[in-house]
Amino acid sequence: MMQFFRTLLGVKGERVGQQVVDALVELDPKSASVAQLRVMEADLDKAGQLLTRLRADFQRERKEAIEARQNYERRLAAAEHMSRQLDAQTDPAQKASLETSLSNLLTQLESLQEEVAVEEREADEAEALVAEAEAAYREKAKALTEAKSALSKAERDMQRAKIQEERERERANKAAEVAGLRQGTTSKLNVAVDAMTRRAEQAKINAEAARMKAQALTDMSNRTKDHMGDANIEAALKAVGSGGGTPAIGLQDRLARLTNKATDAAALPAPNPNLPWPNKQG
C-alpha cells in the first residue's frame, strides 16, 4: 500500500512539475527556448564526452586484438617452422625434443585462438558502440543547430512582426488623426453655426420683446394723454379719424379775432368791489 501511495505521489508530482514548466514556457517563451538550448548543449557535451571515452576504449580494444592476432600468427608460424624441422630431423633425440616443443606450442595456439577471437569480438563491439555514439552525437548536434536556427528565425519573425505591428499602429494612428481632424473641423464648424443661430434667435426674441415693450409703453402713453384709457373716447376718436381738428386760421381772421376780443373786453362792466376777489362774477 505504501508503495502505491509513493508511486501515486510521484506521478502527481511529475504532472505538477510539467504544469509548472508549461506555465513558465507560456509566460516567457524566449527564455524557455534559451533554457532548452542550454539543456540541449549540455546533453550534447555529455554525448561528446561519452563518444570520446568510447573511442578510447575502441582504440584500446583494437590494439589488444591486433596484438593478440599478431602473437597468434607469430606462434603459428613458429609451429609451422618446427613442423618442417621435425619432418627433416633424423636424430631421434632431437626429433623427440621438437615433438615436445611443437606439442606445447600447439596447445598455446589453441588457447590463443579463443583469446584472439574474444579480443577481436570486443574490438568489433567497441567499434559498433562508437558508430552508434557518433550517430547519436550527430543527431544531437543537428537538433541543436536546428533549434538555434529555429530560435533565431523565431526572433527575426517576432522582430518583423513587432515592426509591422508598430507600422500598422502608426498608420492607424495617422488615419485616426486625419479622421479626427476632419471630424473636428466639421464639428467645430457645426458648433459655430449652432452658436450663431442661437444668438440670432435670441436677438430676434430680444428685439420682439423690446418692440412689444415699446408698443405697450406707447399705447399706455396715448391712453393717458388723450382719453385716460376710456374705451368710449377711444372708439369715438377712431370713428372721427384725424380730420376733426381745428382748421387753419388766416392772418386776417386772427387779427379780426383779436380785434373782437378787444372790443368785447371794453364792453364788459367794471368789477364789483364788494366781491371777495377780483374778476369774480356772481
From TrEMBL:
Where is the sequence biased in composition, kind Basic and acidic residues?
153-174
Q: Where is this region: Disordered?
A: 149-178, 262-282
Q: Which domain of life does the protein's organism represent?
A: Bacteria
Q: What is this protein called?
A: PspA/IM30 family protein
